[in-house]
TrEMBL record:
Residues 84-253 form the GDP-fucose pyrophosphorylase domain. It comes from the Eukaryota. Signal peptide: none annotated. InterPro entries: GDP_fucose_pyrophosphorylase, GHMP_Kinase-Related. The lineage of its organism: Eukaryota, Metazoa, Chordata, Craniata, Vertebrata. GO terms for biological process: GDP-L-fucose salvage. This is GDP-fucose pyrophosphorylase domain-containing protein. Pfam families: Fucose_pyrophosphorylase. One of its GO terms (molecular function) is nucleotide binding. Keywords: Kinase, Nucleotide-binding, Transferase.
Length: 348
């Protein structure tokens, strides 16, 4: 892994469910920085969920944002948390996800038969290294200040010709990868209307339901890959630590007596803010969603195999989404690995 052209992260936060895992994961991040995989100026943090069982990826994100803002505020000399430190901050939040029975350190640290010759110091290459390489060198360069979110439960392979345009961008942008209807029944799919606005996010739906989201080529846009929140949206998310009931997702709120709130995914917040009848375990956060997202339009654009989605007004921000060259078509000839592979489906 080479850091010669890597994206300059201000802070990288790795979230995990258990406090007992914090030291081991923090040490793994520091080792990668020492051997040149991460830039030396990047602040590395490992944050456990303040409540067990976990708060879900949505709750873990809100808690990680608070911890990141605290460290950045302290580094800048502030004695309180301030959103001013987000003006030029590039934050990456990685979620460890659930326990993995085949590796005590989780899917992210499974070894791969790969050698990174460009590394200053050689060492075992894990799924996390491949993901960081893709994010830092292909997906994230050029993005404005804000926060990137990504799960570590996957291997992400991006075409070498990938390029994302960021001029004049505002809102939330998501990479959605193509999939067959049969494969999508075990995952999530974006359902968009004729104007390109996402009306629903279908999780493990029936084939009949998923086909409603199919594009002209028969593929459906899978909920997968990195998610970007711009600085203005990030500031609204940061307000969650003083906004009931979302303060129940952060350590500060729980320590102050707020009842724990599980938000399994930020997509639930987007759906609730859109007025959709999102099926969630806890309904309390629905009333606060319009406050966090005053423009609740998750818009969709695709004409190829890899799609980009963004949050905002499509008329106010035209042309901010671009097509990406599609991966190779299936066939008998050798081809590159799939664009998105769930580790649960890898051969043991």
């Amino acid at each position: 892994m080479s850091s010669d052209h890597a994206f300059s992260w201000t802070i990288i936060v790795l979230t995990c469910q258990h406090k007992d895992s914090v030291y081991a994961f923090q040490r793994e991040l520091e080792i990668r920085q020492q051997r040149g995989g991460l830039l030396q100026g990047t602040l590395l943090l490992t944050v456990s969920d303040p409540q067990e069982p976990g708060l879900g990826s949505g709750g873990a994100t809100l808690n990680a944002l608070l911890v990141a803002a605290e460290h950045l505020s302290a580094r800048a000399g502030f004695t309180v948390v301030t959103a001013d430190v987000l003006d030029n901050a590039h934050i990456l939040i990685l979620h460890m996800g659930r326990d993995f029975p085949w590796d005590s350190c989780g899917r992210a640290f499974c070894w791969l038969p790969i050698e990174k010759r460009a590394q200053t110091v050689q060492g075992p290459v894990c799924c996390l290294d491949v993901l960081l390489d893709s994010l830092s060198n292909q997906v994230c360069p050029g993005s404005p200040p804000g926060v990137w979110l990504c799960s570590t439960d996957m291997i992400l392979t991006i075409p070498t010709t990938f390029e994302m345009k960021w001029e004049g961008f505002f809102g939330v942008r998501v990479l959605a990868l193509p999939g067959d209807v049969s494969y999508a029944t075990n995952h999530g799919v974006y359902l968009a209307d004729d104007q390109g606005r996402v009306r629903d996010i279908i999780y493990k739906g029936s084939e009949e339901r998923i086909r409603q989201a199919a594009k002209p080529d028969g593929k459906v846009p899978l909920v997968s890959g990195p998610v970007f929140f711009c600085r203005r949206v990030l500031e609204r998310l940061l307000k969650a630590h003083v906004t009931p009931p979302l303060d129940g997702c952060t350590y500060m709120g729980i320590d102050s007596g707020a009842p724990p709130l599980q938000v399994s995914s930020l997509h639930q917040v987007e759906r609730a803010g859109n007025g959709e009848k999102a099926e969630v375990k806890d309904k309390r956060f629905k009333d606060i969603c319009p406050f966090l997202f005053p423009v609740p339009l998750l818009s969709f654009w695709t004409s190829g195999h890899i799609s980009q989605l963004w949050l905002g007004d499509p008329q106010a921000f035209p042309g901010q989404c671009r097509n990406i060259i599609s991966p190779p078509s299936p066939g008998p000839t050798p081809r590159s690995p799939p664009s998105w592979t769930c580790l649960e489906h890898l051969p043991r």
